[in-house]
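Folded chain entry
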Amino acid sequence: MIPLSYANWSTPVSAWGRVNMQGAIIETACAIDTQSRDQTIDMGVLPISQIARDGRGLAHDFAVQLVQCSLTRHNSSLKNWQHFKITFDGQNDSGLFSINGQAKGVALEIIDSNGFVASPGNPLPVSNILSGNMQLNYSLRLVSNKQALRPGNYSSALRFKMDYY
Protein backbone atom coordinates (compact mmCIF):
# COMPACT_ATOMS: atom_id res chain seq x y z
CA MET A 1 0.00 0.00 0.00
CA ILE A 2 1.35 3.42 -0.94
CA PRO A 3 0.92 6.09 1.76
CA LEU A 4 -0.96 9.28 0.81
CA SER A 5 0.79 12.54 1.42
CA TYR A 6 -1.03 15.52 2.87
CA ALA A 7 -0.27 19.19 2.46
CA ASN A 8 1.17 20.96 5.42
CA TRP A 9 -1.92 22.88 6.63
CA SER A 10 0.15 25.22 8.75
CA THR A 11 1.61 26.85 5.61
CA PRO A 12 -0.33 30.02 4.76
CA VAL A 13 -2.00 30.12 1.37
CA SER A 14 -2.22 33.53 -0.27
CA ALA A 15 -5.03 34.64 -2.52
CA TRP A 16 -6.08 38.10 -3.48
CA GLY A 17 -8.76 39.86 -5.42
CA ARG A 18 -10.00 43.27 -6.39
CA VAL A 19 -12.99 45.38 -5.47
CA ASN A 20 -13.99 48.11 -7.91
CA MET A 21 -16.14 50.91 -6.61
CA GLN A 22 -17.48 54.08 -8.05
CA GLY A 23 -20.10 56.57 -7.07
CA ALA A 24 -20.97 60.19 -6.65
CA ILE A 25 -22.44 62.43 -4.04
CA ILE A 26 -24.85 64.84 -5.62
CA GLU A 27 -27.58 67.13 -4.45
CA THR A 28 -31.00 66.25 -5.82
CA ALA A 29 -34.53 67.08 -4.82
CA CYS A 30 -35.63 63.42 -4.74
CA ALA A 31 -34.21 59.93 -4.56
CA ILE A 32 -35.33 57.30 -7.06
CA ASP A 33 -36.81 54.26 -5.34
CA THR A 34 -34.53 51.26 -5.85
CA GLN A 35 -37.36 49.22 -7.41
CA SER A 36 -37.81 51.95 -10.04
CA ARG A 37 -34.18 52.04 -11.14
CA ASP A 38 -34.09 48.71 -12.98
CA GLN A 39 -37.40 47.49 -14.34
CA THR A 40 -38.22 44.68 -16.74
CA ILE A 41 -41.45 44.94 -18.66
CA ASP A 42 -42.81 41.78 -20.25
CA MET A 43 -44.53 42.93 -23.43
CA GLY A 44 -46.09 39.51 -23.95
CA VAL A 45 -47.00 37.98 -27.29
CA LEU A 46 -48.61 40.20 -29.88
CA PRO A 47 -50.07 38.99 -33.17
CA ILE A 48 -48.48 40.72 -36.15
CA SER A 49 -52.00 41.20 -37.50
CA GLN A 50 -52.77 43.61 -34.63
CA ILE A 51 -49.86 45.87 -35.56
CA ALA A 52 -50.88 45.68 -39.23
CA ARG A 53 -54.51 46.50 -38.38
CA ASP A 54 -54.17 49.01 -35.50
CA GLY A 55 -50.63 50.31 -35.95
CA ARG A 56 -49.90 49.57 -32.29
CA GLY A 57 -50.07 47.03 -29.51
CA LEU A 58 -51.49 47.17 -26.01
CA ALA A 59 -50.08 49.66 -23.51
CA HIS A 60 -48.02 48.29 -20.61
CA ASP A 61 -47.91 50.58 -17.59
CA PHE A 62 -44.82 51.28 -15.54
CA ALA A 63 -43.88 53.91 -12.96
CA VAL A 64 -40.88 55.74 -11.60
CA GLN A 65 -41.25 56.25 -7.86
CA LEU A 66 -39.53 59.31 -6.41
CA VAL A 67 -39.02 59.24 -2.65
CA GLN A 68 -37.95 61.67 0.04
CA CYS A 69 -38.48 64.71 -2.17
CA SER A 70 -37.47 67.94 -0.49
CA LEU A 71 -37.82 71.40 -1.94
CA THR A 72 -35.10 72.85 0.30
CA ARG A 73 -31.57 73.02 -1.11
CA HIS A 74 -28.54 72.11 0.98
CA ASN A 75 -26.94 75.44 0.04
CA SER A 76 -29.40 78.01 1.42
CA SER A 77 -28.06 80.70 -0.94
CA LEU A 78 -29.53 78.76 -3.88
CA LYS A 79 -33.19 78.91 -4.87
CA ASN A 80 -35.30 75.99 -3.60
CA TRP A 81 -36.06 73.06 -5.90
CA GLN A 82 -39.25 73.66 -7.89
CA HIS A 83 -39.24 71.56 -11.06
CA PHE A 84 -37.94 68.41 -12.66
CA LYS A 85 -37.80 66.91 -16.09
CA ILE A 86 -37.28 63.31 -17.08
CA THR A 87 -35.50 62.19 -20.21
CA PHE A 88 -35.76 58.68 -21.64
CA ASP A 89 -32.93 57.56 -23.86
CA GLY A 90 -32.20 54.63 -26.13
CA GLN A 91 -31.56 53.90 -29.77
CA ASN A 92 -33.59 56.30 -31.91
CA ASP A 93 -35.94 54.98 -34.59
CA SER A 94 -37.47 58.11 -36.18
CA GLY A 95 -38.44 59.58 -32.80
CA LEU A 96 -39.39 56.21 -31.28
CA PHE A 97 -37.24 53.76 -29.30
CA SER A 98 -35.60 51.12 -31.45
CA ILE A 99 -35.78 47.39 -30.75
CA ASN A 100 -33.20 44.65 -31.28
CA GLY A 101 -33.90 41.11 -32.39
CA GLN A 102 -35.69 39.22 -35.12
CA ALA A 103 -38.90 41.29 -35.11
CA LYS A 104 -38.97 44.16 -37.59
CA GLY A 105 -41.36 46.96 -38.48
CA VAL A 106 -42.03 48.07 -34.91
CA ALA A 107 -40.52 50.38 -32.31
CA LEU A 108 -41.37 51.34 -28.74
CA GLU A 109 -43.39 54.36 -27.70
CA ILE A 110 -43.42 55.84 -24.18
CA ILE A 111 -46.29 58.11 -23.15
CA ASP A 112 -46.55 59.96 -19.82
CA SER A 113 -49.76 60.29 -17.79
CA ASN A 114 -50.48 63.66 -19.47
CA GLY A 115 -50.35 62.16 -22.97
CA PHE A 116 -46.92 63.50 -23.92
CA VAL A 117 -44.88 61.12 -26.08
CA ALA A 118 -41.22 60.69 -25.12
CA SER A 119 -38.59 60.96 -27.82
CA PRO A 120 -35.12 59.44 -27.30
CA GLY A 121 -32.77 61.94 -25.66
CA ASN A 122 -35.36 64.73 -25.41
CA PRO A 123 -36.85 65.67 -22.03
CA LEU A 124 -40.56 65.46 -21.42
CA PRO A 125 -42.23 68.73 -20.36
CA VAL A 126 -41.21 70.24 -17.03
CA SER A 127 -43.23 69.18 -13.98
CA ASN A 128 -43.48 70.53 -10.45
CA ILE A 129 -41.77 68.76 -7.57
CA LEU A 130 -43.97 67.88 -4.63
CA SER A 131 -42.55 67.36 -1.17
CA GLY A 132 -42.55 63.72 -0.01
CA ASN A 133 -43.06 60.85 -2.46
CA MET A 134 -44.16 61.09 -6.07
CA GLN A 135 -45.15 58.42 -8.58
CA LEU A 136 -44.52 59.21 -12.24
CA ASN A 137 -46.72 57.03 -14.47
CA TYR A 138 -45.93 55.98 -18.02
CA SER A 139 -47.08 53.47 -20.59
CA LEU A 140 -44.98 51.58 -23.10
CA ARG A 141 -46.23 49.94 -26.27
CA LEU A 142 -45.11 48.63 -29.62
CA VAL A 143 -46.03 50.81 -32.58
CA SER A 144 -45.47 50.51 -36.28
CA ASN A 145 -42.37 52.30 -37.55
CA LYS A 146 -43.76 52.21 -41.11
CA GLN A 147 -41.29 49.49 -42.17
CA ALA A 148 -42.14 45.97 -43.37
CA LEU A 149 -43.43 43.84 -40.49
CA ARG A 150 -41.59 40.66 -39.57
CA PRO A 151 -42.47 38.45 -36.58
CA GLY A 152 -39.86 37.41 -34.05
CA ASN A 153 -38.43 38.04 -30.62
CA TYR A 154 -37.22 41.50 -29.67
CA SER A 155 -35.71 43.41 -26.77
CA SER A 156 -34.61 46.91 -25.96
CA ALA A 157 -32.72 48.68 -23.19
CA LEU A 158 -33.95 52.15 -22.29
CA ARG A 159 -32.48 54.55 -19.76
CA PHE A 160 -33.91 57.54 -17.97
CA LYS A 161 -32.42 60.47 -16.14
CA MET A 162 -33.93 63.10 -13.86
CA ASP A 163 -32.93 66.76 -13.89
CA TYR A 164 -33.98 68.97 -10.99
CA TYR A 165 -33.95 72.75 -10.79
Remarks:
- DSSP finds two helices and eleven strands in the chain.
- The longest helix spans residues 48-54.
- Residues 21 and 34 are 18 Å apart (CA to CA).
- The radius of gyration is 24 Å.
